[in-house]
Hints:
Elements: H1 5-33, H2 39-55, H3 59-86
Amino acid sequence: MAKTASQRFNEYLAECDKTRAVFKDFEHAVQEKYDRQGYPYIAGYMMTQLQAAVALLPRRQREEFRARFVQEAKRFEQENLLRRIREPA
């Protein structure tokens, strides 16, 4: 018997919860190892894993993903420029 849309969505949510739990466990283990100073390691590791995951996406999704990062980078660059302009010399 085919699963309903609700059943498939609930399975998706359960999978998301599992992924979130794995990430939280990873974060906790790294933070313990580095005396609560592990965020640089976590960021670098996650960037590497994210690049590998994006490479598995179809081309259109890879392009959309990159476009979101380009947009966010531009936003940060603009915020940084405004902050520098507003800071007293």
